[in-house]
Design brief:
37% helix, alpha+beta, 3-stranded antiparallel sheet, 682 residues, disordered N terminus, 18% strand, Phenylalanyl-tRNA Synthetase, Chain B, domain 1, disordered C terminus
Length: 682
């Protein structure tokens, strides 16, 4: 009996404690809080729970929380009394704005402001015999309610939640739940993306707003091809969100039959969603059947996009296309053989490489592994990267008995874009393969030259370099780079038509770059181009065919195939005649070769001085301070020294006067009637 009594007493004591805990919890729930939003639900527990007062939607709610009144002093709701004393409304408003709101962390419409309340205690400091405890500044995580001290750590903490897929907050408002998708707009095309579209997981789709210029250039190239033949089958092999294929179908309409492919289920679902968002019909095709055309000629392809879920290599092996764009994550060399297998004659293949660490010589072993090329960091490293990619493209095309003509090569901060036209036949393949050569690069003065054609071994390869660094410097001074593409990087006629299409569709970012590319392709400093005049000049023969333009009659057009061997021979003769007028390979950076203690001339004036000396010159998009010219480096430095002025000081005044006389005399002898007005004024 005694045992039973003691067990009953224990059970009664436990019941009393549980009842006391329940009353305490009810009391805490009934206490008034300083929170503005009351309908907050904790998803993890399922019962109403209020978020921390430092998490607010806008600044007005934070001011309302402080209960600002002009005649009364109010304390800061996010600071302790020791940290910030009560003050009038104008000072409190400034304090809330500068010390809390401006340093907040934003996530899905909420602002996590910095908090100085005793929520995150710091280790006490022992000063003499007394211990001083401080309450540290911290942030409250809206997802997991953790307290983080630093703002950068808080941002990293939120990003880790996003990368894990934990994008739903513990505190969600009941009347207006927030949609996890975000709608972005580019070139009159809406695309729905995930909140982590800039830093996605492996299972999410990726959308990079910084690649807008890349998408505009590819669209302009496709628009030019659409004027040559209609309709054309085009493939976006790595769709992601489908933004590129949607722009093609929305603007070019019946001229193209668009296929968007991706091997990820989430990306395919996102593409279908974006097609419906832009009022496009979707035709799904997930079967790997050998059907050359999924959308037949009898089927209405207007406003219809075919979405496929296959590996990119598989769909390019199974079907033929006129236009293929490759934009994988990193290098595209793994997909080149499949791309050139079934691409149609005179079609276009474009590829975007984002492995800039290897292409820009930061990871040289990776470039050797992926592209089979040896590179070093040079002043012309961006053009070197473009020529490495084109060499890989030419080798892949030659394996399929196809040649290439480079239409466009762009290397910018985030990507390398190459657009080539495909020429069928072993003769074209041999011509392209012969343009892959090695480069001799001097590491002292950065002079460079392509190795001579032929297989015979030279006794002294240093003799090919125009510089004399090997004779004046000790040791080995040059390295062999490559193999690289040694041909032209641009087609001036195609670039002019791209400029016309970009102006017609209002692609502002692409227009400015295409102007520079046209000047670079023709190696000229003139920037005054008329759109209509440039478009009329495209009545030329390219790749052995006459290109379809509005200014040519339909009877004079030859489509897709070259009619006879005479046309091929004439095209080869034309290309050989134009090789002498190709733009020079590589460029020099004017800052890299400036003379110490001398002030360089302005870049545009220096271009005029080189042109007056009898050399072809132009600016380049690869480097804002680069000069593309056929002048050797020695002549480049001579002209630069001739028109540079010394930094005046001490005993350099006499030398400056002599250089000034030489400069004025040289300018007087060189100036002619065709000289620009500003040169005569100087």
């Amino acid at each position: 009996d005694g045992v039973v009594v003691t067990e009953k007493v224990k059970s009664n004591n436990l019941d009393v404690k549980e009842s006391e805990l329940e009353t305490e919890e009810k009391g805490t729930e009934e206490e008034p809080t300083k929170e503005s939003d009351s309908n907050i639900v904790d998803v993890s527990s399922g019962y109403p729970r209020e978020k921390h007062i430092s998490i607010q939607r806008d600044f007005a709610e934070l001011e309302k929380l402080a209960n600002l009144k002009e005649e009364e002093k109010k304390p800061c709701p996010l600071c302790s009394e020791e940290k910030y004393k009560a003050c009038y409304s104008h000072k409190l408003h400034r304090h809330l704005l500068n010390f809390h709101w401006k340093v907040s962390v934003e996530f899905e419409g909420y602002r996590m402001c910095i908090c100085y309340l005793p929520c995150h205690p710091v280790k006490p400091n022992v000063v003499g015999d007394q211990t001083v405890s401080k309450m540290g500044a911290h942030y409250h995580c809206i997802i997991c309610s953790a307290t983080i001290a630093r703002r950068t750590d808080m941002i990293s903490h939120i990003n880790r939640h996003v990368n894990k897929g934990e994008t739903e907050s513990r505190f969600i408002t009941v009347p207006a739940p927030k949609n996890s998708h975000q709608v972005l707009k580019e070139s009159a095309t809406d695309v729905r993306v995930l909140p982590n579209y800039s830093t996605p997981q492996k299972t999410d789709s990726y959308f990079n707003p910084k690649m807008k210029l890349n998408r505009q250039l590819i669209f302009s190239a496709l628009a030019v091809l659409a004027k040559e033949r209609t309709p054309i089958d085009c493939l976006d092999a790595f769709g992601a969100t489908g933004i590129m294929g949607l722009q093609w179908a929305k603007h070019l309409q019946s001229s193209v039959r668009v296929t968007i492919n991706d091997c990820n289920e989430n990306s395919v679902a996102m593409i279908q969603e974006n097609c419906h968002l832009n009022k496009m019909k979707v035709k799904m095709n997930t079967k790997e059947d050998d059907s050359d055309e999924a959308m037949g000629d009898g089927e209405d392809s207007t406003n219809t996009i075919e979405v496929t879920k296959m590996d990119a290599n598989v769909i390019m092996h199974l079907r033929s296309f006129d236009f293929i764009h490759l934009d994988p994550f990193g290098t595209a060399v793994n997909y080149l053989d499949s791309a050139f297998r079934n691409v149609r004659n005179l079609g276009i293949v474009s590829l975007t490489s984002t492995d800039i660490s290897s292409l820009y010589a930061k990871a040289q072993h990776v470039a050797l592994r992926h592209y089979g090329s040896n590179i070093v960091r040079t002043e012309y490293y961006k053009e070197l990267a473009a020529r490495i990619v084109i060499a890989a493209v030419a080798r892949a095309a030659a394996r399929c008995n196809k040649g290439i003509e480079v239409l466009l090569a762009v290397a910018l901060e985030h990507f390398v874009l190459v657009v080539v036209r495909v020429l069928r036949g072993p003769n074209s393949a041999d011509d392209s393969a012969r343009k892959i050569r090695y480069l001799i690069h001097c590491q002292w003065c950065e002079e460079r030259i392509f190795q001579k054609e032929g297989n015979m071994l030279e006794e002294n390869p240093y003799q090919q370099l125009p510089c004399d660094c090997h004779g004046s410097m000790p040791g080995k001074t040059a390295v062999v780079l490559g193999p690289l593409w040694s041909g032209a990087l641009f087609n001036a006629g195609f670039l002019r038509r791209m400029y016309f299409e970009s102006a017609q569709y209002g692609l502002d970012e692409a227009q400015s770059l295409l102007k520079t590319l046209v000047c670079e392709a023709e190696c000229t400093t003139s920037k005054h181009y008329s759109i209509h005049a440039a478009y009329e000049e495209t009545k030329q023969e390219e790749c052995g065919v006459y290109i379809k333009t509005p200014s040519t009659s339909p009877e004079s057009l030859v489509y897709r195939k070259r009619k006879s061997d005479d046309v091929t021979r004439n095209a080869n003769k034309r290309q050989k005649a134009e090789n002498s007028a190709e733009h020079p390979a590589f460029y020099y950076n004017i800052h890299r070769h400036s003379i110490k203690g001398m002030n360089m001339p302005k870049l545009n004036r220096f271009l005029n001085y080189l042109s007056e000396a009898g050399y072809r010159v132009s600016r380049t998009h690869f480097d804002p301070m680069g000069v593309r010219t056929d002048a050797p480096l020695a002549q480049f430095k001579t002209v630069l020294l001739k028109y540079s002025t010394p930094t005046y000081g001490g005993g350099q005044v006499e030398d400056a006067e002599v250089l000034e006389e030489d400069r004025s005399g040289a300018a007087a002898t060189v100036c002619t009637e065709d000289c620009p007005p500003h040169c005569a004024a100087d």
